[in-house]
C-alpha cells in the first residue's frame, strides 16, 4: 500500500492539534482529513472509506470511546488510535480493551509518532490482505475440475454440501481417476477449516516405515539420515484437514497407530517422547473393497468404522456419460489457454467416439486423451485423427448394442437431463409415466 | 528579480548564512537574500513547554511578504514545537511560501556532546533545503539518502545527504513558480566537506 492509498481521519476538538497532525501526515503523502467532533467524523466515515482514525478521547458531545464503538460498527477493521492527555490514561486503556490499536499521549515524540503510524499502516495492510485472501479462497471453492450436470454427480455434490460444514470423517470411494482428491478438496474448501491447510498423503506411495515418518514426523537422530527434527503431515494439518489417499493400502501396524491417533488426537514423533496434540479432520479415499479386506482380516474393523462415518461414492465416468461432452469441452478450453492454441471445440465425429468409449481410467483418462489431442490438433476443432486411446479395446461400437441397451442408455440420459423428473422425462420420450416406471423397474434404474 | 528570503530570528550561531545562501542558489536556482522581517517571539512562547510555536512563527513570517520574495525561510536558535509533538526541527507550508528551521536541537551541545559548528551548519543546511523543498510541493521521500527523507532524530539527519534524489530534483525543476536560473546539482558536498 502506498501512502496515498491510506486514508487517515483525525478527530479532535482542538484545531491546533487537528492542523498539526493533518500537516504531519500530508508530508508523508497520506490522504488526510479532519473532523472537529464525533458527528462530523461519522459524516466523513459515511462519505469515504478510511483506514486509520485518530480520535481524541475527550470531546464535547459524544466522547472518543463512544465514537470508537460507532467507527467499529461501520467497519470493524478500521484502525483506531486514541489521542489523550496525561490525565486520561485510564480511558485510553479502556479504549484499548475495546479495540483501539494504540494511544498517543500528548505531546508525543515525533519518532514515536512515525513508528506508531507505520505499525498501524502495516496492521491495516495485513487486515486488508487477509480479507482479500479469504475472499479468494471463497471464490476458488468448487472452482476446480468438478464438472458435470448428471444426476449422479449432483447427488455427490449434494453430499459434499451436507458433510462439508460438519467435522465428520469422510470416506470417498470410487475407481481410480474419478476425482476423489477433488471431492476431498471441495469438502475442505467449504468447511470451517478452509483457512487452514489441507494436507494430502498418498498412503500407497510409501513403505510402512516411511509412511510412519511422513505422518508423524521425526526427531533429530531418530534414524540414520534424520539430521533435523521434521514435522509430520499430521502436525502440518493442525486446524485443517488431512486427506489420506489410498487408505486401503496401509499395513497393520500403521492401521493400529492411525487408530490410536484418531481416537486421542495425540502422537509422538519418531524417536521422540514429547506428546504432540493436533486438531484435524480426516478425509480418506480408496478404490479398494474395504469391506472385503475387513472380512479377510487385512484391514482392522475398528479402524474401518472410525473412517467410514460418512461415505461418498463417486460414479465411474461410464455411468455418467452425459458429463463426457461437458468435461471434454472443459479440458479443451483449459488446455487451449495453457498451450496458447486456437482449438475451440471438438468435432461431432470425435465427440461421438468419446461418448462410445468406456473410460476405464475415468475423468483422468479423458483429461489425458484431450491433452494429447490438443498437442497435435491444428485447426479450431479436435478431429478424430488427433485422438489416441491407451486402451482401444475398451471401445464399444454402438452397432453392437442391443435395442434394449440403447433404450436403457437413452432413458438414463433423459432422466439425467430432467433431473429425475418422471413426468418431464416421459413427455420427452413420448411414453406414459406408467410405461416409464415399468422401464425404470425393468432396467433396475433408480429415480 | 525574485529571491528566497532568509530571515534570522534571534540567532547567535555563526557561520551558517553564507553556506545557506550558496546552497539555496545551487539547489533551487534562486538567489538568496538575507533580510530582517518582524517576528515577535514573545507572542508565540509557550510557558508550560518553554518552547516556541513554529506554526505561529510561520504565520508572522508570511504576514506581509516582500514583493520579490518567492519563499521565506526563517532561521532561529529557539526550540520549536507544534501542539501534538514534543518538538520539531522545522516546519514548512506544503506548496506555500513560508518555512522555518530551528538550530536548537541540531546542536551537539543540546545532547550533552562537544560542540561541533561544522556539523551544526551541515545539519542546518539539510533541514533548510528539506523545509524549502516542502514549499515547492515535495513530500517526504523514501529514498534513504535524499534530503527530503523524513528525520525524527538528529542522527537521521546525519545519515542523509545534502542532495535531492533525481526524482525530487526533477520535481523542483519542473515547478512553474521557480523563477529563472537552472539549479546546479550536488551543491552540498563541495561546500561542506
Structural overview:
The complex is a heterodimer of chains A (447) and B (193). Chain A is an alpha/beta fold and 447 residues long. Chain A has helices at 15-27, 38-47, 64-74, 89-97, 110-140, 151-163, 180-189, 208-216, 233-236, 252-264, 290-296, 301-307, 324-339, 348-356, 362-376, 403-417, 422-429, 433-442, and strands at 7-11, 31-35, 52-56, 79-84, 102-105, 170-173, 198-202, 217-218, 230-231, 241-245, 266-268, 275-277, 281-286, 310-313, 345-346, 381-382. In chain A, α4 links the parallel β4 (79-84) and β5. In chain A, α16 (403-417) packs across α17 and α17 (422-429) packs across α18. Chain A is extended and about 95 Å long. In chain B, α1 runs parallel beside α3. Helix content of chain B is 31%, strand content 18%. The model of chain B is unreliable at 181-193 (pLDDT under 50). Chain B has helices spanning 17-28, 54-61, 117-135, 154-159, 166-173, 187-192; strands at 3-9, 31-34, 45-46, 51-53, 69-76, 80-81, 90-92, 98-102. With 193 residues, chain B is α/β, with parallel strands linked by helices. Chain B has a five-stranded mixed sheet, with helices on both faces. A three-stranded mixed sheet of chain B has the order 3-4-6.
Distance between the termini of chain A: 56 Å
Q: Calculate the mean pLDDT score of chain A and round it.
A: 88
How much of the sequence lies in strands of chain A comes to 5-15%
The CATH superfamily of chain B is Collagenase (Catalytic Domain)
